[in-house]
Design brief:
Layout: H1 3-30, H2 36-44, H3 46-63, E1 87-89, E2 95-97, H4 98-115, H5 126-149, H6 167-185, H7 201-220, H8 228-256, H9 261-275, H10 284-301, H11 304-308, H12 316-334, H13 342-373, H14 380-385, H15 387-392, H16 400-405, H17 407-412, H18 417-424
Antiparallel strand pairs: 1-2
Helix pairs in contact: 1-2, 1-4, 1-7, 3-4, 3-5, 4-5, 4-6, 5-6, 5-13, 6-12, 6-13, 7-8, 7-9, 8-9, 8-10, 9-10, 9-12, 10-12, 12-13
Protein name: Ammonium transporter
Length: 425
């Protein structure tokens, strides 16, 4: 066992774990006050559900043997045969424990399911969401992870699909899954009519910072060891993210006349997404180009929901699906060391198209089945009154003390005509 590589993988796994609560804060700040707790919980619960399913059968479906290139062969159900002495080779030929690799990959599955939650903010039953992500990772994420990383058919293409850390399996997968679920669940009450601005931008910025920090483990850790490729991926992660932030802000300034904090945060995430599949295979200037393009294009793409009429609450489709596609396709031509070219681009296009087609159809069926059986959508009263109180019997903020302490003040302030009418009623 290589102790240095093992330690690095374990630290990277911890960084990836931090990304899920970081995502919860990022999404939580973007919703309205009445929905913040529900948004936090929709991400956070993935740490419980997906962890258990991964140990029971997820690792086996993704990484044990191969059944026709589609999924694993179930030889490792319940982590059968895996013990502390079980070793595997990383990409440098050094040996690390299978358990360290399994933990790292488990946390990829966790955040992929959580990513979809932002598209469905404000309007789904929490119990149904838990059922949905349990089924989704089982029939979508685990098999697709096998296609790309477990020796499945995308890994066997000639040339093989380049997906260093999850452009297809994570971001395209989550983005198209979110789109399919949104089409079934429908629009929020008041979509395109009521203001639905982020309620807490400092929370969004904090979540972005935690995502950015954890993404070094997500990306560089995918080398499963410490070498030159690890350093390349870490540097490219930083460069692409910074460039994407600038690309988003420049487009936003030209289009809307302002540099917004939300734009800076969203641009950074778009860059992180786009460099995920490609960062280990491009140089620093390729990373910069990928970042700038992803920032500008994703900034444009988030407006499509208003033109096309689908309610992707927190822009999961515009950032993760579009950013994942850009990073997956651009590496086809930007890959260094002679791996780029038309053949590589065709493989990349095949991989992206296959994941989009499979995930969209299967997710659509899953969401529709849940809607018709236990019900996916919360009631209109729950949505309007506040999904936090209805689904969790809690609120993100307690204003009772503010109301009571302000009672003497309110008595000295004349009521407006509208307020007087409301009291009279």
């Amino acid at each position: 066992m290589n102790g240095a590589d093992t330690g690095f993988v374990l630290i990277s796994a911890a960084l990836v774990m931090l990304m899920t609560p970081g995502l919860a804060l990022f999404y939580g700040g973007m919703v309205r006050t009445k929905s913040v707790l529900n948004m936090l919980m929709m991400s956070f619960i993935s740490l419980g559900i997906v962890t258990v399913l991964w140990v029971l059968y997820g690792h086996s479906i993704a990484f044990s043997g191969d059944l026709g290139g589609f999924m694993g062969n179930f030889d490792m159900i319940g982590m059968k045969g895996v013990n502390p002495d079980s070793l595997m080779e990383n990409f440098a030929g050094e040996k690390i424990p299978v358990l360290a690799f399994s933990l790292f990959q488990m946390l990829f599955a966790v955040i992929t399911a959580a990513l979809m939650s932002g598209a469905l903010a404000d309007r789904v039953k929490f119990s149904s969401w838990m059922v949905f992500i349990a089924l989704w990772v089982t029939v979508v994420y685990f098999p697709v992870a096998h296609w790309v990383w477990g020796g499945g058919w995308l890994a066997k293409l000639d040339p093989a699909v380049i997906d260093f850390a999850g452009g297809t399996a994570v971001h395209i997968n989550a983005g198209v899954g979110a789109l399919a679920a949104v089409l079934v669940v429908g629009k929020r009450v008041g979509f395109k009519k009521d203001p639905m601005r982020p309620h807490n931008m400092p929370l969004v910025l904090l979540g972005t910072a935690l995502l950015w920090f954890g993404w070094f483990g997500f990306n560089a850790g995918s080398e499963l060891g410490v070498d030159g490729t690890t350093a390349t991926m870490a540097l490219n992660t930083q460069v692409a993210t910074g460039a994407a932030m600038l690309g988003w802000l420049i487009y936003e300034r030209i289009r809307h006349g302002a540099f917004t904090t939300l734009g800076a945060c969203s641009g950074a995430v778009a860059g992180l997404v786009a460099i995920t599949p490609s960062g280990g295979n491009v140089n620093v200037f390729g990373a910069m180009l990928i970042g700038v393009v992803a920032g500008a294009v994703c900034s444009w793409a988030v407006s499509l929901k208003f033109k096309l009429g689908f309610d992707d609450s927190l822009d999961v489709v515009g950032v993760h699906l579009v950013g994942g596609i850009l990073g997956t396709l651009m590496v086809g031509f930007l890959a260094i060391n002679g791996t780029g070219g038309l053949d590589q681009f065709i493989s990349q296009l095949t991989g992206a198209g296959a994941v989009i087609g499979y995930t969209f159809v299967v997710t659509l069926i899953l969401a529709f089945a849940i809607q018709k059986t236990i019900g996916f959508r919360a009631t209109e009263d729950d949505e309007v009154g506040g999904i936090d109180q209805a689904q969790h019997a809690e609120t993100g903020y307690d204003f009772s003390g503010v109301a009571s302490s302000g009672s003497s003040v309110s008595a000295t302030v004349p009521a407006t005509p509208a307020q007087s009418k409301k009291v009279d009623a």
